[in-house]
Design a protein that fits this description.
3 helices; mainly alpha
Length: 88
Amino acid sequence: MEISLSPEIEQYVQDKVSSGQYATASEEFLAGIQLLKDIDRIYQGRYEALRQDVKIGLEAAERGEMVDSETVFSQLHERLNQRRGQMP
């Protein structure tokens, strides 16, 4: 695989290797790829949870179980704050 880097990114990689934070540029790239995989996994889980919440909400609406928007947004804000507290 061939990768082209901008001069700024190449310098950044070299600085990290020179500082000893990574032994090689390959090690640094692998760490970056692992981080992207972790982020994808986290957001995929959140996406699935959101889909489930939407499904539950639609089913409740079909049954006529409605909640005023102020309550909904207050609950969403609270849940968002809870999830932010759980992020790695």
